[in-house]
């Protein structure tokens, strides 16, 4: 007879860890604490992903314009 160990504890630990990390990332968003607390975990992840995408996009455009300005001086 094969004994199956319960993964309930491990699953809860993973969920708790994920939720903790979402809270940490949500705290970094440039929104009020009140707005942060109103976000569900799903909405938090959506806003976090959008914020990261826009940050990368604008950083890339900013770098592009810096390169253009730098090359204009030469």
Walk me through the topology:
Elements: H1 8-27, H2 33-38, H3 41-73
Protein name: NPAS4 bHLH domain-containing protein
InterPro entries: bHLH_NPAS4
GO molecular function: DNA-binding transcription factor activity, RNA polymerase II-specific; RNA polymerase II transcription regulatory region sequence-specific DNA binding
Provide keyphrases for this structure.
74 residues, mainly alpha, single chain
Describe this structure in words.
With 74 residues, the protein is an all-alpha fold. It has one domain. It has three helices and no strands. The mean pLDDT is 84.
User: Rounded to an integer, what's the Rg over CA atoms?
Assistant: 21 Å
Uncertain regions spanning at least 5 consecutive residues:
none
What is the beta-strand fraction?
under 5%
Q: What sort of overall outline do the alpha carbons produce when their principal axes are compared?
A: elongated
Q: Give the helices and strands as they follow along the chain.
A: HHH
Tally of structural domains: 1
Provide the structure class.
mainly alpha
Please bin the fraction of helical residues. Answer: over 70%
Give the termini separation.
78 Å
- Total number of strands: 0
Integer average pLDDT: 84
Number of helices: 3
What's this, in brief?
The protein is an all-alpha fold and about 70 residues long. Helix content is about 80%, strand content about 0%. Keywords: DNA-binding, Nucleus, Transcription, Transcription regulation.
């Amino acid at each position: 007879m094969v004994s199956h160990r319960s993964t309930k504890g491990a699953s809860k630990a993973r969920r708790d860890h994920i939720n903790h990390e979402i809270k940490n990332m949500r705290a970094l968003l440039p929104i009020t604490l009140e707005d942060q607390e109103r976000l569900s975990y799903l909405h938090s992840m959506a806003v976090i992903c959008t914020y990261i995408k826009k940050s990368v996009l604008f950083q890339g455009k900013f770098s592009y314009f810096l390169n253009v300005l730098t090359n204009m001086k030469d």
